[in-house]
Amino acid sequence: MENLIFEDEKGALNCTEKEVVSFNSGIPCFGYFPNREAEGNLHWSYRAFPRILPENYRSSPYYDFRAEPGGINGSGFFSMLLPAVKEKMDVHLQWDMSKMPQGSRGIFSFGEGEIKRTMTVMDLGFSLFTVGQIHAVENESFGVYYLSEPEFEIQKIVEKLIPIFQFEKEYFHDFNAYFKVFLRRDPFRISNGGSACRYAFISGYSAFGGFDSDKWFNTLIHEMTHTWPYMDDSNVGEGTWFTEGATEYYCTWLPYIGGFLDEEFTVKCLNEKIGRRYYQNPFREMPNMEIPRIQWKERAAQECPYGRGFLYLANTEAWLRREGKGSIDDLVKQFGWENPMHTEDWKRFLLERLGQEAVVEFEDMVNGKLLEPDPNIFENRFDVVKDEIELNGRKTVAYHFEIRNERREL
Fold first, then answer.
1. What is the pLDDT of residue 407?
2. What's residue 408's pLDDT?
3. Whose CA is closest to 278, among 249, 254, 238, 316?
4. What CA–CA distance (Å, rounded) separates 6 from 179?
5. Res 277: pLDDT
6. What are 204's strand-pairing partners?
7. Contact 365, 241 (CB under 8 A)
8. Antiparallel, parallel or unpaired: β 200-206 and 179-186
9. Fewest beta carbons within 10 Å, which of 3, 146, 287, 384?
10. Which residues of the chain fall short of a pLDDT of 70?
11. What is the DSSP letter of 118?
12. Please, which residues have CB within 8 angstroms of residue 410's CB and are 6 or more apart in sequence?
């Protein structure tokens, strides 16, 4: 950023930059404080440049501000200097395309072109955009946008995603939902990750090829499903197990029970998301709140809450159904991005439906106690097989899933 200028009705306004208390324990924040009292309307301008990645960089956050041939993709908090207010604001966003090539488009996660809507700073900060010579595959409620043509065929994957999105938005009673997918070409050997915001996400693919269509398809379903289950995770680690675990649960279970993906595809997902990410994870017994300290150094540690949360929620769902006490849906559908669930909401739900024993099991999960699959997990549609594996230099127990014999015969 350069040429940062603040002005009010008196003219130039000098400001001092200071680090401030962050809204998220994993993201440092800085504020600009005027050296005199501001009067009237406050205006600021600056020139922002896309981030230049260091040589031999192997990964990068998806919430970023990055260029590639044809344009730029970015996100609110990492390209916009935003006012420090908690109240909702009337926001007007407009792209100046006067110096852009003909045919350029500017697309926010909120919509295309000029945007006028009321939102919070958090809504604007956790938003995504792409601007430039954009390629698109889209219909009225679902779109995929990208600047560089990848080696794989996007159309077929989008055609598989759209009916799953329609099913999920009806399942969560969000009938007018739309969704935007922004793709970024990464200069890394390994890519295919993603980050979500409300009703949109950004996903990467490697400029060097080696694309795994099944893995990317799973990434897209996962990030799409992030639109609904949500727990506050401002103190990183407290809600990760739920926000990621519930997303893994629903993005695997709903396409299966909806008839979009078969047993063979689903059992592969279970063995990847629970088997590899949790049971075969060297950090599987690390407490939830210790994982954030190392999760960006040890990829396996970062993956652990996904698998742990998925298995824990599937176990809880099986327990509720066995006792005739409803479903985790009864709580999950009450919350979302605008009204996030908190740990106390979950514990209160457990206490009301399943008693103190369930609260103790929850605390055990938080503290890293190894989970075993519930006897009725996934409505007994899959066989659970116990294994002996070597992990951290010792033999230990693990589990994997198989298609039930009677279903194989069908």
1. 57
2. 52
3. 249
4. 36
5. 97
6. 184
7. yes
8. parallel
9. 3
10. 406-410
11. E
12. none
